[in-house]
Specification:
alpha/beta; UDP-N-acetylmuramoyl-L-alanine:D-glutamate ligase; seven-stranded parallel β-sheet; 20 helices; about 15% strand; binds ligand NAX; binds potassium ion
Length: about 500
């Protein structure tokens, strides 16, 4: 079973469940402190350590780890922020038992330390930082010390929400039991530096109800990979249809090639007859079908010739596209659909009709918006008009639309209407380039054509796309992503 990712509430609930089955709150801090000390000692075997302890249990972890490092002979100082604040009995007990002298916080000491441990605030952060605390963070950041955050870098909460003008940037973040949203979503993930998850005696059964949020890793979809069988012919591997636009013809061509390289046995582009020659001249392994009317175009997906359809790349966001989507989707016999790009924006003025179409259709649909397209379809869930985190926004969009929603970005989230969600945590900024999304949609369509479920195909395609970005790096263009798909397949093959 894969480790799930928790939000702050789920982590507090898991702590309570562990306490209820007999692990004391004191012992949780004990375990957290010792485990964190081990990580720090391994990562920085030498050097002077300064531990900054805040008023809550995050500070409690700080006192405990300082004692442990002291026992191992490390040079440790402990400085307290807001020592007069009331603290939990367990944090107070660890404070009283701290083997290192407690000093008031003194910013001038930062420069003398090689490693500063930030145990100021953790999951309990729930209001904007005071100006005084922000100044402390600024001096710390300006110092040459390496910063190790306990649980989360001070300034962001466990769900990744930022409460500081400039939250701390850590080199290492040590967290407990499971990663929290802050460790996987952007931009907070980038403030954590390297992330180490340590065991403090909690188990998955302590998470009730279970969390259905995961990191997108091969373990999520590996067992469902549609490896071709020796006796299969090309149509048994899966046939895919890609609707091509009349102006931006490159998009559907990229998608179709990615679809074929993702393993569809036969890929067809369908386009209006006046642009047929453009497609036909440039495609070789991909077939090109022409249509003369919208109803002819829609009818292509009314038979069971294809197992997957991609509609949107290169299509104009206009009423005719909306009509094509509705006409084809409502009577489709193709089981899996990807609706992307122009086919999403075409519904900007009436997204409910798209959702109604999806609910009515026999097909399972994946919507693949970036934040801009998402805002057009789900204005109330858009990034700047909704306080909720990206996972929650995508989950609500999936529930509303009845589709798998793949919300793109440096932390692409795939959310299913049934509540499952996954976050892609490894990605490359070079993927933000023209045509990259067309390749992603094509790869997904290719996997769907081979019979993968939409949930798994969406995640696997996102992972493959990210890997391609990481391997290619600077200088990549969308065409390179298509070319690199065989390399990614080889990489996946070696994992089996
Ligand atoms: N049983 C548990 O709850 C465990 C907690 N652990 C640690 O405890 C942390 C959570 O502990 P807490 O819930 O006590 O939370 P924190 O230690 O993060 O902070 C809570 C304290 O900070 C204050 N505070 C909140 N926002 C503030 C702000 N903007 N400026 C100044 N003070 C602010 C609160 O009033 C409260 O006193 C975790 O992040 C983790 O490090 C670990 O020891 C594992 C077990
Ligand atoms: K912290």
């Amino acid at each position: 079973m894969m480790d799930s990712i928790l939000d702050t509430e789920q982590m507090y609930a898991a702590d309570r469940a562990a306490i209820a089955r007999g692990i004391s709150a004191y012992s949780l801090i004990d375990r957290a402190g010792v485990a964190a000390a081990e990580q720090i000692h391994v990562r920085w075997p030498t050097g002077k350590i300064l531990v900054l302890c805040g008023p809550g249990n995050n500070g409690g972890d700080g006192y405990r780890l300082a004692s442990q490092l002291h026992c191992w002979g490390r040079a440790v100082r402990v400085m307290e922020y807001a020592p007069q604040r009331a603290r939990s009995a367990e944090a107070q007990a660890h404070r009283e038992q701290c083997l290192v002298a407690l000093e008031p916080l003194d910013e001038t000491a930062f420069e003398a330390a090689d490693i500063v441990v930030d145990a100021l605030l953790g999951m309990g952060l729930q209001r904007p930082l005071s100006a005084a605390l922000q100044t402390v963070l600024q001096s710390l950041q300006a110092s040459s010390a390496s910063i190790c955050a306990i649980d989360v870098p001070t300034g962001i909460d466990g769900n990744g929400r930022c409460w500081a003008e400039a939250p701390l940037q850590a080199a290492l973040t040590i967290t407990f039991f499971r990663k929290k949203l802050a460790h996987v979503l952007a931009p907070s993930r980038f403030l954590c530096g390297e992330i180490k998850v340590v065991d403090i005696g909690l188990c998955e059964e302590d998470v009730t109800p279970p969390s259905y949020l995961y990191e997108n890793q091969p373990a999520l979809w590996q067992s469902a990979i549609p490896w071709p069988q020796p006796l299969q012919h090309k149509y048994q591997r899966g046939a895919a249809l890609v609707y091509g636009g009349s102006e931006m013809t490159g998009a559907a061509r990229l998608s179709a090639l990615a679809c074929a390289r993702a393993g569809a046995g036969a890929t067809t582009i369908a386009c209006a007859s006046d642009v047929w020659a453009i497609y036909a001249q440039s495609m070789q392994s991909v077939m090109v079908k022409r249509w003369h009317s919208l109803s002819q175009a829609a009818a292509l997906s009314h038979s069971s010739t294809y197992q997957a359809v991609l509609i949107g790349p290169g299509l104009a966001p206009e009423p005719s596209t909306q009509e094509l989507v509705m006409r084809s989707l409502l009577q489709t016999q193709v089981s899996s659909w990807v609706v992307d790009a122009g086919a999403l924006t075409a519904f900007a003025s009436q997204p409910e009709s798209l959702f109604e179409g999806i609910h009515t259709s026999a097909a399972q649909v994946i919507l693949t918006p970036h934040e801009g397209e998402f805002a057009r379809l789900f204005p109330d869930l858009a990034l700047h008009s909704n306080q909720k985190n990206k996972v929650e926004r995508a989950r609500q969009a999936a529930a509303r639309s009845g589709a798998i929603v793949l919300l793109k970005g440096s932390d692409t989230v795939v959310a299913s209407p049934d509540g499952r969600a996954a976050v892609q945590t490894q990605s490359s900024p070079y993927l933000a380039s023209a045509g990259s999304g067309d390749v992603l949609a094509g790869m997904m369509t290719g996997l769907l054509a081979q019979g993968m479920s939409p949930w798994l195909a969406a995640n696997m395609a996102v992972w493959m796309h990210s890997q391609a970005g990481l391997i290619l790096g600077a200088g990549l263009i969308a065409e390179d992503l298509v070319q690199s798909i065989p390399t990614i397949w080889q990489q996946i093959g070696r994992m089996n």
